[in-house]
Fold each of these.
Amino acid sequence: MGGAACGGAGGCGDVIIRDAIEADLPMILEIYNEIIVNTTAVYSESPVTLDDRRGWWRGRLERGYPVLVACEDGRVNGFASFGEFRAWPCYRHTVEHSVHVRAERRGHGLGSALVQALIPQAANLGKHVMIAGVDATNGASLRMHERLRFEKVAHFREVGHKFGRWLDLVFLQRILDARRIGRGVVQ
Ligand SMILES: CC(C)(COP(=O)(O)OP(=O)(O)OC[C@H]1O[C@@H](n2cnc3c(N)ncnc32)[C@H](O)[C@@H]1OP(=O)(O)O)[C@@H](O)C(=O)NCCC(=O)NCCS
């Protein structure tokens, strides 16, 4: 991956978007656990371990899926990845992605840069649809995805429970190419 200029209000230096390496995992863990503990962006309650993140990272690479990081001044300030949307084989043209930014660097374009970098990677792997599952109260993520031409297609009511309340989950999707379903065309 090459570098990408950082947009957004507040200004910052260059952001490098690149493939994650094993040495990035402690910083990925730090970002992820802060989000688990303090937000409803991830529907988990307990912080995870470095081994958990290592297994996740290796699993993604083994399947040929990207794990990207956004680095500023050598520090990992965000990460993004995608994996299977659902386990059944006929969903194989669809992926679901996740994107997370360090608390103090939110709102400076890192999340957008990461998702924008994932989109061509999904297309190059022959994927047809990308899906984001976003907590309905997560205004920043909803806004970011809508700006990146993801369309809200579903709103599940009270499917999660965290911090003593029910959580609604929104699905947004972006169709990546104009392939039509035709016999023998799409494998
Ligand atoms: C959601 C998230 C990935 C977005 O990344 P980001 O780098 O903050 O996003 P960007 O700066 O590219 O864009 C965010 C948009 O939301 C807006 N926004 C509103 N409230 C915001 C807030 N509290 N923080 C950040 N952005 C906010 C920004 O203004 C911007 O919209 P605009 O460009 O139209 O003004 C990031 O905020 C994050 O990691 N949040 C916690 C974890 C999370 O929600 N992950 C996503 C799970 S689906």
Amino acid sequence: MNRRHLLSALGAAGLGAGLIGRARAQHEMHDMPGMSMPPAATPEPSPAPALGGARYRPVHTPNGWTLPFRINDGVKEFHLVAEEIEHEFAPGCVARCWGYNGGTPGPTIEAVEGDRVRIYVTNHLPEATSVHWHGILLPSGMDGVSGLNQPGIAPGETYVYEFTLRQHGTQLYHPHADEMTQMALGMMGLFVIHPRDGEAVPVDRDYAILLHNWALHPGTSRPDPSIMSDFDLWTFNSKVYPATAPLLARSGERVRIRLGNLSMWNHPIHLHGHRFLVTGSDGGRWPHALWRPEVTEIVGVGQTRDIEFVAAAGDWAFHCHMSHHTMNAMGHGIANPLGVDTRGVADDVRQLLPGYMAMGGNGMSEHSAHLAMGMMAGPGNTLPMMTGQGPHGAIEMGGMFTVLKVRDELPGDGRDPGWYRPPGRELARRVSNDPGFGTPLRRPKA
Ligand SMILES: [Cu+2]
């Protein structure tokens, strides 16, 4: 039996193996005060500005930004640059990606129904690109499908797109030239169009999150465009938890979260503690009669969905409900170690593989415990399968996960308010450590 077979027979050092984060980096992460908190907090929403006569509440793109524009003769002018960038998914994992204007996702483009927009696109990539304005009603020649609607924008060239916005809603933009590669490397962005006449039910906070997946194999630094389904990283605005910024709100505020999906999977996005309304999509804000209450909404590939809710005090998980999408890199094709006592063979394996740890026999939770203790090593430039520390211990999440933090009052400067303190006895608590506690009923044996 060769080493490879032996490993796979043993469950390959637990499901996290081969992808176990760099122990030292993780160790430091856990040791640094505040590192379990995402670095980028959410600033206060600024008052609705007057632009071209129309007033709107600006969208906030967590971990991202909004592209500034200038007004030239009544036309809003934007400039996108397609280019290679260095992108950090979370501390300890950096990749050479492709994006726009220095980042992935590209900056959010924001405008108002009725605006005439002119968008310059400069190509700094090594191959031709184009931009498709996904969901936007426009003349065919502006639709951005290279070969069909226009020639590809060659490296070094700048093209200009110009059209009038005839709708509102949460739209997207992405290349339509070597689309598989360029999107796999991170080229995509949100395009939010506000209604011209404002909204009958205005929101106090407006967040925008783009969902994506990445095949960044452990130990490598370039996303692999050939992968169809077995991705390593699942992201909110190109970040994985714990680097995903928390979403902040005050109790009682009306919050909208716009979700766009340009990944290769559908994502059932779930919010704890609230019943939200699905109120819109690429088709704009729906008529009131179509709003429907949900706690989980599937955002299909190429779709957008807007959800709205009245914020209730607490720390509330907000995540994709595909449980592998709230994990980071892991091996998927290995033997199942669950229930297997591997203690006896771990010493033998260590002679072949120094540092080997038998894991997963009692579940995967010990993965995060070992990480916290700095006991695990693995390939460089990857992240632990599950991570994150909360006020009560390991959160054991990654990928498409963040925390909605609702407080009666928030720090004025947009700082993270820290962890929620439940009032009185509103906290689950231990009442016994006797395994024989109580008289639970069990389903009768047949
Ligand atoms: Cu998902």
